[in-house]
Write a structure and sequence with these properties.
Layout (H helix, E strand, L loop, with lengths): L11 H9 L9 H13 L3 E4 L5 E5 L11 E6 L21 E4 L2 E4 L6 H15 L8 E6 L7 H5 L9 E4 L7 E6 L1 E10 L2 E3 L4 E9 L4 E2 L11 H14 L4 E8 L5 E2 L3 E8 L3 H18 L8 E6 L6 E3 L1 H13 L3 E5 L7 E12 L3 E10 L2 H17 L3 E8 L2 E2 L6 H13 L4 E5 L5 H7 L4 E4 L4 E2 L7 E3 H16 L3
Helix pairs in contact: 1-3, 5-6, 5-7, 9-11
């Protein structure tokens, strides 16, 4: 028996568990796509894939719905792969270890992949359910959403006929998303110049761990710490205290759209002054824990001898430029919307720092619902990079989206939601990117909404999915399709 078998619900949880058995991190979605194509073939449904790995499956309308406008159900195949430092897990081959914890499904020390595995599970359950009353369905599952929406960019929509579009990539039940921000990934490349390690210096590993992290869009306003930014402050503090040290490398984070939880730096310094360095680090830990006492109470800063040999270190110029970028690059909320109360308008997140043989890389996620402010924020990052001797490249640009003023889909959804739950729903906008903007550009006639069940702490190992909310959204989704005759 599977972990989720007892939950039932028209095989939604069955398919969700099946999905968690198949590795599907960004760039590794092929096996999951093949699973869906096999499923469609067994059901006798039209299905196709493309060079980007996107999957499209079509289900004809049920009896009596042949003249109703087709509905596109859309989600993405990939997941963010994050884990706790102590967990041994290979996201390229290991299944997610599921746990039922009260009303929640979570994973054992890793991201769960409910973002957006639950959309895939809903889609498969819709295709599988023979008693469903529905218009023609077009299931569209894209790749590489978490790393720049590459699949949606590449998708050929010429064979799609849908008039209504339901994106299943939102995380708050009963809040129908009708607007999102646009974004761009800013990749900074700093040339890494090296020199031999001083003979009298010993390698040390400086680490920042225990941060909560989170989604760089929907959680950016919560004031959580970013380990990459804190590492810049920590290295700067050692420099300002006149601690003579060399920097060999800095590495933190795995995704630009996740607030970085852990960062490490390899230093070399004279063992005789290691105690002084440790004292400064302890002082900084106390200071930072006070600053982030409401968000990151489990923060740990540590310095210990490094087990690996170090032969080369960065030059002082490269070290200085690395610290300068970490100190200057913007992180957090840049501006709030003047149109929608309490909505973040623009933000920036330094999600990844990575050192390789000849370069130090910085990946920053820029978001804004105002195109000109997104551009201004990207220009600021470009200026910082230039002043520090680095180059910058803008990647994975995606547009924002505002739904049609003559929308007919939202009233249907709101009525169905009230019928099933007895609760009122709301229309909202979020400071995060969903693929609706790209589909709106390709298919401007679409009447679009993004929705989903309650999920918490996505993009972190604390990610969890509400069981009761998943069930309610499923029942509501079936009722909404029934009303679209």
């Amino acid at each position: 028996m599977g972990v989720l078998d007892a939950l039932g619900t028209d095989r939604v949880f069955y398919y969700f568990e099946e999905i968690t058995k198949i590795p599907h991190g960004s760039g590794n979605e092929k096996a999951l796509g093949e699973y869906i194509l096999r499923f469609a073939k067994e059901k006798g449904l039209y299905a196709r894939t493309d060079e980007a790995g996107n999957v499209v499956v079509k289900k004809p309308a049920s009896t009596g719905y042949e003249q109703a406008p087709a509905v596109i159900i859309q989600g993405h195949l990939d997941m963010v792969c994050e884990k706790l430092g102590a967990i041994r897990h290979d996201f390229t081959k290991d299944p997610i270890s599921l746990v039922i914890d009260g009303d929640f499904i979570r994973a054992e020390g890793t991201t769960l992949g409910a973002d957006d595995g639950i959309a895939v599970a809903y889609a498969l359950a819709l295709l599988d359910l023979d008693t469903l009353e529905h218009p023609a369905l077009e299931i569209v599952l894209t790749t590489a959403e978490e790393t720049g929406m590459d699949g949606a960019h590449a998708l050929d929509v010429n064979d799609l006929e849908g008039q209504y579009f339901i994106n299943m990539d939102s995380e708050e039940e009963g809040k129908f998303l009708i607007s999102c921000c646009g974004g761009r990934r800013m990749h900074i490349s700093l040339p890494a110049k090296h020199r031999p390690k001083p003979e009298n210096e010993t390698p040390y590993l400086l680490q920042i761990t225990g941060l909560l992290g989170g989604h760089s869009g929907s959680d950016i306003h919560l004031g959580r710490a970013n380990a990459n930014k804190l590492m810049g402050r920590l290295l700067y503090a050692l420099t300002e205290a006149h601690i003579p040290y060399c920097l060999a490398s800095v590495n933190g984070g795995t995704m630009d759209n996740a607030i970085c939880r852990e960062t490490s730096a390899v230093l070399t310094l004279d063992a005789k002054i290691a105690v002084q360095a440790e004292n400064i680090i302890k002082d900084m830990e106390r200071l930072l824990k006070d600053e982030y006492r409401h968000t990151d109470v489990d923060m740990i800063l540590s310095l210990e001898k490094h087990s690996d040999a170090v032969d080369m270190v960065l030059t002082e110029e490269t070290k200085k430029n690395t610290i300068s970028i970490l100190m200057l690059i913007p992180f957090g909320v840049e501006s709030m919307s003047l149109d929608i109360p309490d909505l973040v308008e623009s933000s920036s997140n330094i999600g990844v720092v990575r050192t390789d043989a000849d370069c130090i890389h910085f990946d920053n996620a820029v978001r804004s619902s105002v195109a000109s402010r997104k551009e201004a924020l990207c220009q600021k990052i470009s200026v910082i990079a230039s002043l520090c001797g680095a180059t910058v490249e803008g990647l994975n640009d995606y547009p924002g989206w505002i739904n049609r003023e003559d929308a007919k889909l939202t009233p249907v959804l709101q009525a169905a939601y009230a019928e099933i739950t007895g609760k009122a729903s709301s229309l909202t906008a979020i400071h995060a990117g969903v693929e609706c903007g790209l589909f709106a550009e390709k298919m401007p006639w679409l009447d679009m909404v993004s929705m989903g069940p309650d999920m918490y702490d996505v993009h972190t190992p604390q990610e969890r999915l509400s069981i009761s909310s998943t069930i309610r959204v499923w029942e509501f989704l079936k009722e909404a399709l029934r009303r679209m005759k």
